[in-house]
Specification:
globular; 5-stranded antiparallel sheet; Herpes Virus-1; alpha+beta; about 20% strand; single chain; about 90 residues
């Protein structure tokens, strides 16, 4: 299996009721989709959003695993390995 993520053991799956990006709210910006950090629970906007706060969180903290918190999506992305690393367990 090529390009497998080597960081999944760092994931701590957090549930969240948050449906917004704090940074976008503070700056009056809009977002497209939301991503949640599986290390600390930070919720930020995706790379299709103008400010890309989830990616910025990775660059600032080194927290490499995020999940989509869009309805019906369960995938996990690893920024370090640049791969879909798996799915959030049911």
């Amino acid at each position: 299996m090529a390009n497998a993520c080597t960081h999944l053991d760092e994931a701590r799956v957090f549930d969240t009721d948050k449906d917004y990006c704090d940074e976008c709210i503070r700056s009056g910006s809009r977002w497209v989709h939301l991503r949640m950090c599986l290390i600390c629970g930070h919720v930020g906007c995706c790379d299709s959003s103008p400010n890309r706060h989830a990616s910025r969180h990775f660059r600032d903290t080194g927290h490499r695993l995020v999940r989509s918190i869009e309805p019906g999506e369960r995938w996990i992305w690893c920024y370090a390995d640049e791969v879909v690393a798996g799915e959030v367990p049911s």
